[in-house]
C-alpha cells in the first residue's frame, strides 16, 4: 500500500539553483533535490526558444503551480520533474517526432543522437503512457 501512496504523491517545486548551461538543481517540497538537464527537451515552438541562455536563466518558481516557469509560457508538471529520469526519454522522443525540422538542422542530428544515447543509458523504464506508438 505504501508503494501506491508513493507513486501517487504530488510534489511541488520549492526552489532551484543553476548548476551549468541548461542544468538546474531542483528542490521539492519533501526535501528531495535533483539535478535536471533540460537540454534534451529544448525543441519545438515553446521549449526551443529556451536554448537562448538569457531566456533560460529567466526561470522562476511559480508557487501557485508548484513548478518552474519561463516568461515565454513554458512550464513542466512538477511530478514529471520529480520523476525526471522516468519521463525524459519519452519527452525527447515525442519532441523529436513532432519537430523534425529542428532535428534536421545542420549539426542537430548528431547532437540529438548523442543526447538520446545519454538518455537511453539512464532511462530504463519510461511510463507506458509516454511511449510513442510503434
Question: What does this entry show, briefly?
Answer:
The protein is α+β, with helices and mostly antiparallel strands and 134 residues long. It has helices spanning 2-8, 44-47, 53-56, 78-82, 84-98, 100-104, 108-122, and strands at 13-20, 23-28, 33-37, 60-62, 67-69.
Can you offer a commentary on this structure?
The chain is of the alpha+beta class and 134 residues long. 41% of the residues lie in helices and 19% in strands. A three-stranded antiparallel sheet has the order 1-2-3. It has a two-stranded antiparallel sheet with strand order 4-5. Strand 1 (13-20) and strand 2 (23-28) form a beta hairpin. Helix 5 runs antiparallel to helix 7. The protein is globular. The model is unreliable at 1-5 and 119-134 (pLDDT under 50).
Helix proportion: 40-55%
Structure classification: alpha+beta
Our Rg estimate from Cα atoms comes to 15 Å
Shape from CA axes? Answer: globular
Report how far the terminal alpha carbons are from each other: 33 Å
Physical arrangement of strands within the biggest beta sheet: 1-2-3
How much of the sequence lies in strands comes to 15-25%
Largest sheet: 3 strands, antiparallel
Chain-averaged pLDDT: 79
Task: Say how many strands there are.
Answer: 5
What's the order of the H and E elements? HEEEHHEEHHHH
What low-confidence regions span 5 or more consecutive residues with pLDDT below 50?
1-5, 119-134
Amino acid at each position: 500500500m505504501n508503494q501506491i501512496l508513493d507513486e501517487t504523491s504530488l510534489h511541488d517545486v520549492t526552489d532551484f539553483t543553476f548548476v551549468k548551461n541548461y542544468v538546474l538543481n531542483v528542490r521539492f517540497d519533501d526535501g528531495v533535490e535533483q539535478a535536471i538537464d533540460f537540454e534534451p527537451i529544448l525543441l519545438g515552438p515553446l521549449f526551443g526558444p529556451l536554448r537562448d541562455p538569457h531566456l533560460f536563466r529567466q526561470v522562476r518558481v511559480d508557487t501557485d503551480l508548484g513548478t518552474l516557469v519561463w516568461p515565454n509560457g513554458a512550464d513542466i508538471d512538477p511530478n514529471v520533474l520529480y520523476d525526471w529520469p522516468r519521463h525524459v526519454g519519452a519527452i525527447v522522443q515525442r519532441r523529436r517526432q513532432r519537430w523534425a525540422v529542428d532535428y534536421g538542422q545542420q549539426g542537430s542530428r548528431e547532437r540529438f543522437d548523442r543526447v538520446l544515447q545519454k538518455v537511453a543509458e539512464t532511462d530504463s523504464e519510461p511510463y507506458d503512457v509516454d511511449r510513442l506508438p510503434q
